[in-house]
Automatic annotation (TrEMBL):
Residues 1-19 form the signal peptide. This is SH3 domain-containing protein. It comes from the Bacteria. Pfam families: NLPC_P60 (PF00877), SH3_6 (PF12913). Belongs to the peptidase C40 family. Residues 308-440 form the NlpC/P60 domain. It comes from Luteimonas colneyensis. Keywords: Hydrolase, Protease, Signal, Thiol protease. The lineage of its organism: Bacteria, Pseudomonadati, Pseudomonadota, Gammaproteobacteria, Lysobacterales. InterPro entries: NLP_P60_dom (IPR000064), P60_peptidase_YkfC (IPR027017), Papain-like_cys_pep_sf (IPR038765), SH3b1_dom (IPR039439).
Length: 464
């Protein structure tokens, strides 16, 4: 009783400013319409599912789908099936199909127009006249994350002066361990034109090592292995071997494990007591490929196999990128909308085409197409029936459905932004989101009069 009375007297003696504090104010509302803090947690969406851990596709079904993708989708290249010699006409077709001089004015990072002479020098750097009628096909492997470019240049160019987010010469990126076919080199010898499983483009030669076809593809099938299941993982820093030091591995990358490595043998100056011993590709001074051990810390978000393809795992994997900056063509060391979707699915062992234009029409997936004859109501109904993991395409963009709030579809996607009309107004509000975000789909507007829903071209369902 005495202690209670003492506490009461102390409280009464407090200054009014402390004894009667204002209630803690809630965080300001999020910019995205209809979005609440709870929606930014994967648990919110997983808890709403009746059977979140049900396997959507088994490993055998995924393998069968990947085989269909390899056989039926024209954007996918089967590198092991390429002939021992490549025809010059085919090489020219690959290069000329990509490296086209633009007709419009382009601007550099300083907002100045790129001179026509500079563009013509880039065209000459392709060295098309040096392509032989036929040549032996060379094989290589990517040793560090590397950009794929329209032309053999680091020059960044943009459609609008001052808007430097979308580099029109940036195509994509490849990751350590990705195999490539090498079919041509730039005039200065610093760049190679390569064909990868999902893209053909220019890459800096220092990012790839040349080796034998069989050894390259055997490495990719080695077991045991680890799959990166985080947004990224990095090997341990080591001054003893810079080639395997602090190497960034992206979600879905698979690397062999040296499981029989002796516990008392150091790896690059460090005992592997708290790390996995993995094997990575390395480029020698002569440009040739070898494989060397590296340490991947046990703290890395990795798994000993591809993840089970469940709706819960799809949601978890997508949220590992939440808030990451948007990177057109995988610039900024991040990814764009189609890369976001394909890297999520890569962590399950699922192969998707690189670009939205190919993903949206791939015959190897369970596709629901839309055309001008489909009404707004039909499109909305399809979205209300969509399941987590379904991919929704409009021209140039893809969103992944994660669930519904009061029956209304919600997606996570990597986007430059969205537009919407606040209720009761005709004003179009543009949100410069520029990253991986959660948004409701139905309020999105493509322009002042066209809901984004009315521009949907397809929904791709990676399920039976």
């Amino acid at each position: 009783m005495r202690s209670t009375a003492l506490l009461l007297s102390l409280l009464l003696a407090l200054p009014a400013s402390l004894a009667a504090r204002e209630p803690v104010q809630a965080s300001p509302p999020l910019a995205v319409p209809g979005l609440a803090e709870a929606h930014l947690s994967p648990g919110f969406w997983i808890d709403a599912l009746a059977d979140a851990d049900r396997v959507v596709l088994t490993p055998a079904q995924i393998a069968a789908q990947n085989a269909r993708m390899q056989a039926e989708d024209g954007s996918i290249h089967d590198l092991e099936a390429l002939p021992g010699h490549v025809d010059g006409t085919q090489v020219r077709a690959w290069i000329e199909g990509l490296s086209k001089l633009p007709e419009r004015t382009l601007f550099d990072v300083h907002g100045q127009p790129v001179e026509r002479g500079e563009l013509e020098r880039l065209q000459a750097s392709l060295d098309l006249d040096a392509i032989p009628a036929s040549q032996p096909l060379r094989h290589g492997m990517v040793v560090r994350r590397a950009d794929l470019r329209t032309f053999p240049t680091r020059l960044r160019v943009f459609s609008t002066a001052g808007d430097t987010d979308i580099d029109r010469f940036q195509e994509s990126a490849l990751f350590p361990g990705d195999p490539v076919a090498i079919v041509h080199e730039s005039r200065d010898g610093d760049w190679a034109f390569i064909v990868s499983q999902r893209y053909a483009a220019w890459i800096e030669k220092q990012s790839i090592a040349e080796g034998e076809r069989d050894a390259i593809h055997a490495w990719g099938r080695r077991a045991p292995f680890l799959v990166v299941t985080g947004a990224t993982a990095r090997t341990a820093y080591t001054p003893e071997n810079p080639a395997v030091s602090d190497v960034q591995l992206e979600m879905g990358v698979r690397v062999p494990v040296l499981a029989d490595w002796p516990a008392m043998d150091e790896v690059n100056g460090q005992l592997p007591a708290a790390a996995h011993v993995i094997e990575l590709p390395v480029r020698g001074d002569d440009g040739r490929l070898s494989f060397q051990p590296a340490l991947l810390p046990r703290s890395a978000d990795v798994a000993s196999d591809y993840l089970p393809l469940t709706e819960a795992n799809l949601i978890r994997q997508s949220f590992k990128f939440l808030g990451e900056r948007y990177g057109w063509g995988h610039s900024y060391n991040t990814r764009d909308c189609s890369g976001f979707a394909s890297e999520i699915y890569r962590s399950f062992g699922v192969l998707l085409p690189r670009n939205t234009s190919a993903q949206a029409v791939s015959p190897a997936l369970n596709r629901l197409p839309f055309d001008a004859g489909d009404s707004h109501a039909e499109r909305v109904q399809a979205l209300r029936e969509a399941r987590p993991g379904d991919l929704v395409y409009i021209p140039g963009h893809v969103m992944m459905v994660i669930g519904h709030v009061d029956g209304e579809p919600v997606a996570i996607h990597d986007t430059s932004g969205m537009s919407w009309k606040p209720e009761g107004t005709d004003d179009l509000v543009r949100l410069h989101l520029n990253g991986v975000v959660v948004t409701p789909i139905l309020p999105m507007m493509s322009n002042a009069t066209t809901p984004t829903v009315d521009r949907i071209t397809s929904i791709q369902r990676i399920r039976p």
